[in-house]
Amino acid sequence: MSLSILEVRHLRTLAALRDAGSLVRAAQLLNLTQSALSHQVKLLEDRYGTPLFERKSVPPQFTAAGMRLLALADTLLPQVEEAERDVARLVQGRAGQLRIAVECHTCFDWLMPAMDAFRQRWPEVEMDIVSGFHPDPVALLHQNRADLAIVSEPDEDDTAAIAFHPLFSFEIRALVAHAHPLATRPWLSAQDFADQTLITYPVPDEMLDVVRQVLAPAGVQPLRRTTELTVAMLQLVASSRGVATLPVWAVQGYLDRGYVKDRSIGPKGLTGRLFAATTRAAAARPYMSDFVSVVRETCFLSLKDIALL
Question: Sign (positive/negative) of CA torsion 89, 90, 92, 94?
Fold first, then answer.
C-alpha cells in the first residue's frame, strides 16, 4: 500500500471548513489564504479521486468520503492537541495562573465562554478576573497585578516590554429608538451626533471608538450621559433619551427582538479591534498562547460579523 499523504493540517482544514461554514471563514480561522486552503482540499480530492464536499452548498455538505475524514479528524485532532499540551507541561511545568484585566465593559459576553473552554484544556491553571473595570489594564501587567489584559489598541511605545496579540475586529453600530429621526438614515455621519445625547459607559474618551475615530476628528462634541450597564443604556435609547454606539455582538439579542434600531456609522461602518496584552515573559508560557488561540477560535465561531486580526 502506498504511503498516505494525509497530514494533521489536512484534518484541521476539513474540521475548520465544517465548523466555520465556508471556505472564506475557514481560511481566516486557520490564518491561511483561501487559495492555500482550496489547494489542500484539491490535493486530497485528487489523491482519493472523489469530491469531499459539495462546492455550491453553504454551509458545505460533505460527501461520504469527506464525512469519513471528518470522523478521523474528530478522533485524532483532540489527541494531538492533548499530547502537545502534555509535552508543554513536561517541559515548563503544569501549574500557572492567568489573571485577566479588561477595559471593555462588553467583553464579558465572549470572555466567560472562552474561559470555560480554556479550563477544559488547562484545568491546573488558576484563572481569575481582576476585579473592577480598569481604564489602563496594561499598567496592571507592569505592576504584576494581572497576567493578561484585553485592550482596544496596542501601545506602540510599550512593545519592548509588552506583547500585543491580535484577537478580532468587529463593527460598532449606532443604536436609536424606532421613532427616532435618525432611524430613517442609511448611515450616520459625525454631524448627525451633534445635537444628540450620546449615552456611553463612564470611560475616558480615548477608549471610545466613536469619539476617537469619528467625533473628535470632526470636532463634534455631543451632550453626554453615562451608565455602567448595557441594559440600562439600551433602555435609555429605546425611550428616546439619547443614542448609543456598541458592538453588534453585544446587542444582537436586543436587535433580533426589535428592541432598538441599529445604523452604520459612516458609509463604510465603524470598526473596533481587540487585542490581548501580556508581558514578553508571560507570552512564552504555553498556556498563555493557547488561551489567545482559544479566545480567537471560540469568538470567531460564536459571534456574528467579526473578523480575526
Answer: positive
